[in-house]
Specification:
Helices cover 31% and strands 17% of the residues. Strands 5-4-3-6-7 form a five-stranded mixed beta sheet, sandwiched between helices. The protein has a two-stranded antiparallel sheet with strand order 1-2. It has one domain: Glutaredoxin (3-Layer(aba) Sandwich). Strand 1 and strand 2 form a beta hairpin. It is an alpha/beta fold. The chain is globular, with a radius of gyration of 15 Å. Belongs to the glutathione peroxidase family. InterPro entries: Glutathione_peroxidase, GPX_AS, Thioredoxin-like_sf. It comes from Solibacillus merdavium. Pfam families: GSHPx. One of its GO terms (molecular function) is peroxidase activity.
């Protein structure tokens, strides 16, 4: 299988093939509108603006599996992203990224690259780990998505290159994107 074999539903109900993004570098992200990491919408938009003309794209997938931080539907999420954060990249319909209803694209992504070790060096990291351990301990096992704003970097050939956790440095993410462009 390849990333190009997967489909995703846009907020208007239209089905879009990942083939649409062939020959582009992609950062695919599960997002949430009411999360402590929601500020990252702006950082993602800056990356999109900086590198979009070089063949880079951000694909956002709202998800409500972590603390019910995205209760609204995909269309409302997309509108909020546009009006509140100035997002102009594609926001898809709301999906699940773990469990029995995991979207096939995210099942593929999380099995293509290893899950990094959960670092607990900062207060933010410790808080996030404690919250996951208390509320979603199964998400700490295997290759599950641990929280909102987990990012997958995909190269121009559709290979999943790297997984970035929600607290990953945008400096590191940008450097990784630049090496693929």
């Amino acid at each position: 299988m390849s990333i190009y074999n997967y489909l995703a539903r846009k907020t208007n109900g239209e089905i879009l093939s990942m083939e649409t993004y062939r020959n582009q570098v992609m950062l695919i992200v599960n997002t949430a509108s009411n999360c402590g990491f929601t500020y990252q919408y702006e950082d993602l938009q800056k990356l999109f603006e900086r590198y979009g003309n070089k063949g880079f794209n951000v694909l956002s997938f709202p998800c409500n599996q972590f603390g019910e931080q995205n209760p609204e539907d995909g269309a409302t999420s997309a509108l909020q992203c546009k009006t509140q954060f100035g997002v102009s990249y594609q926001v898809f319909d709301k999906i699940d990224v773990n469990g029995k209803e995991t979207h096939p694209l995210f099942n593929y992504l999380k099995h293509e690259v290893d899950c990094p070790e959960f670092v607990r060096d900062t207060m933010q990291q410790k808080h996030l780990y404690d919250r996951i351990q208390t509320n979603y301990p199964d998400y700490l096992i295997g290759r599950n998505i641990r929280w909102n704003f987990t990012k997958f970097l995909v190269d121009r050939n559709g290979r999943v290159i790297q997984r970035f956790e929600p607290d990953s440095s945008f400096i590191d993410i940008e450097k990784a994107i630049e090496t693929l462009l």
